[in-house]
Design a protein that fits this description.
mainly alpha; about 70 residues; about 85% helix
């Protein structure tokens, strides 16, 4: 397994874990946004630009959800 594949595996795993834990703390929403940004970077790096674009949009949506969520 090469470094890019490991990076993608980390990003997607982090997305899954953070999404599952979002109800526990608003910080998991922020971590989900960061994970989506990492997933976006992975998509662009591997040449799958539609995946990278969709993940970038998800990162922005999650960032907005984090910003609007009460503390």
């Amino acid at each position: 397994m090469d470094a890019l594949t490991l990076f993608g595996l980390f990003a997607v795993t982090a997305m899954l874990v953070c999404y599952a834990l979002e109800d526990r703390s608003r910080w998991f929403v922020l971590l989900f946004a960061v994970s989506c940004a990492l997933g976006s970077a992975y998509g662009f790096l591997q040449g799958a630009w539609p995946f990278g674009l969709v993940e970038a949009i998800w990162a922005l949506v999650a960032l907005r959800r984090w910003h609007l969520r009460p503390q």
